[in-house]
Design a protein that fits this description.
single chain; about 600 residues; 28 strands; about 25% helix; aminoacyl-trna synthetase; phenylalanine--tRNA ligase; tRNA_synthase_B5-dom; phenylalanine-tRNA ligase activity
């Protein structure tokens, strides 16, 4: 999850209150974020340079590192954090973000050329008028762009943000895609004029920008934004032009976001303008920009249309497990910046019409609304209770009963890997290659190449690794094997198997045979004569993993469900086991 570093004193000033570290940690926990670390600017610099720790007396301002949810883009800057915490604490109302009501003829216009569809087809824009920057606000404005670039923008591959001093440029603007040799401008923080292809070579040695070059470097055309005088605003997603660079003196900010994903572009633009419109002369008002495409279609951004969601009260209280009155739920939603109006359906069910503001792009489903109610109510205040128990699956219940029975017979349960090597289910068991096994694609190790088709390799490996353990060794496992099955939609099927192994000075064949009888007795199955399908019986088997004449198949109601016998000496040698062993494996699901 993203970690946001903010100055403690400036944050407390924005919150209008001071806290000690424990009190602020508790406030963060209640809001659903986490105070991850408390440090200082100089301590961070020393850590980055791998310098030794010094005294803390002159380390400057205390820095809070706050961990926020990855989808809460409105919390990636101090302004958003402070606003959210003040609303949560009941100090501020939910702000109403407005788009200035001006005619489309009076709006700034961004004209999009057809060629941009080859590389970055979308652009959205907005204007912040009458902004007042100081050094801290300016740095926060730049930091938010960087955090959005790293987060939702996916390192500028999906969206790239450009910010410009509107007073240095003149609309209408054009968004074009041109061959690199035709683009010339002075990039940000440079004084020399560069051609776009020269600029790519120049930035290959730049630690910050070189990681973005691959996005457009091999394209025959590069995206570029011009004003009406053919002044370059930016070469997205790489660098802005020096001519329109913003500074502490900037009053009017033009923001453009070029993108390959229009939805994310809207989220990014809305986040930028809602967070910093607080510094506008007319707070929370944003001037729109008309974007006109080459096919004649035009759109006005930012899009502040409110998304309304119908959420039943019973759904909210059912999820969080607390019965709450309607007014209380509406109040809790307000703390999380969600306006909620009560409505009653025809069947008398109480519902809320929840208005999702442009800052809360993370609210997509009624479960998100229920989660916000739970956060505002307080997870620690939700009464602890045992959840209503679901009826266990018959197979799971049967598995637990069998575990108990076998454990009472003196066997110890083990848990082995469900993955194994190909040879462990074939040559090491004296078997041909198993074509019923699910193979792991691009396996990183020869030990984990297939999904096991038998529990036998795991138990033998366990004994091989514990051969110095006092004898006898009596172990068992109840677990799944996986077999290929073309009739299943995923091409394979899980089967629950039971396996037991005895290892000692003698083979212990009679003990394993006795265990078969005990398991069948526990299931209420009688031993019957061969051919009788009402119970179980045993018959001769020819399984190569066992000694000839010292093995048997278990037949249950006419079906083969398993095999037991003395393990073949060659198999024991493969697993480095010096003592004789007897082994049993049954398909438990056949007993249900």
């Amino acid at each position: 999850m993203p970690t946001v570093s903010v100055g403690r004193d400036r944050l407390f000033e924005a919150l209008g209150s001071t806290y000690n570290d424990d009190e602020f940690d508790e406030l963060c926990f209640k809001f659903g974020i986490e105070l991850d670390d408390i440090t200082t600017e100089k301590a961070i610099q020393r850590k980055e340079k791998h310098l030794e720790e010094e005294g803390m007396e002159d380390d400057g301002e205390t820095i809070y590192k706050i961990e926020v949810p990855a989808n809460r883009y409105d919390l990636l800057c101090l302004e958003g954090l402070a606003r959210a915490l003040r609303i949560f604490s009941g100090l501020d109302p939910i702000p109403t973000y407005k788009v200035v009501n001006i005619g489309t003829d009076s709006m700034l216009e961004m004209r999009v050329r057809t060629e941009t569809s080859k590389i970055r087809p979308y652009i959205v824009c907005a204007v912040l008028r009458g902004v007042t920057f100081d050094e801290a606000k300016y740095n926060s404005f730049i930091d938010l762009q960087d955090r959005l670039h790293q987060n939702i923008c996916r390192r500028r591959t999906l969206v790239a943000i450009g910010t410009h001093d509107l007073d240095t440029i003149e609309g209408p603007f054009t968004y074009e895609a041109l061959p690199p040799a035709q683009i010339n401008f002075v990039p940000l923080k440079q004084t020399k004029n560069f051609r776009a292809d020269e600029l790519m070579e120049f930035y290959k040695s730049d630690l910050k920008l070189k990681k973005f070059l691959h996005i457009i470097e091999n394209s025959p055309v590069y995206p570029v934004i011009y004003d009406c005088k053919r002044t370059v605003l930016s070469l997205p997603p790489i660098i802005n032009g020096a001519h329109s660079a913003i500074s502490l003196k900037t009053k009017n900010v033009f923001i453009e976001c070029t993108a390959t994903d229009l939805t994310k572009a809207n989220i990014v633009l809305n986040t930028m303008v809602t967070m910093f419109s607080v510094y506008c002369e007319r707070k929370f008002e944003i001037e729109p920009v008309k974007v006109t495409y080459s096919d004649g279609k035009s759109f006005v951004y930012p899009d502040f249309s409110i998304y309304k969601m119908n959420v039943p009260l019973s759904y909210i209280t059912g999820i969080i497990g607390v019965q709450l009155p309607e007014d209380k739920v509406a109040s809790l939603l307000h703390k999380m910046q969600l306006r909620a109006e009560k409505s009653v359906s025809e069947d008398k069910e109480v519902k809320f019409v929840v208005s999702v503001p442009p800052t809360r792009s993370d609210v997509l489903h009624p479960c998100d609304v229920a989660e916000d109610v739970a956060i505002a109510y307080g997870y620690n205040d939700i009464p602890k209770r045992k959840p209503a128990s679901l009826k266990p699956l018959p197979l799971s219940q049967f598995s637990d009963l069998m575990r108990t029975e076998i454990a009472m017979a003196g066997f110890t349960e083990v848990l082995t890997w469900i993955l194994c090597s190909k040879k462990e289910i074939s040559s090491m068991l004296n078997r041909e290659e198993d074509n019923s096994a699910a193979i792991i694609a691009d396996s990183r190790t020869s030990e984990f190449e297939v999904v096991r088709t038998s529990l036998m390799p795991g138990l033998l490996r366990t004994v091989g690794h514990n051969k110095d353990h006092p004898k006898p060794i009596k172990i068992f496992e109840v677990g799944d094997v996986v077999l290929l099955d073309g009739t299943n939609d995923v091409g394979a099927v899980n089967r629950r198997h039971l396996a037991a192994l005895y290892c000692g000075a003698n083979s212990g064949f009679e003990l394993i045979h006795g265990l078969v009888d005990k398991i069948m007795e526990a299931t209420g199955t009688n031993f019957v004569s061969p051919g009788n399908s009402t119970g179980y019986y045993i018959e001769k088997s020819e399984e190569p993993a066992f000694l000839q004449g010292r093995q048997a198949s278990v037949i249950y109601r006419g079906n083969h469900i398993g095999t037991f016998g003395i393990v073949h000496p060659q198999v024991l040698k493969e697993f480095d086991i010096p003592d004789p062993c007897s082994f049993l494996e049954l398909d438990m699901q056949s007993l249900l």
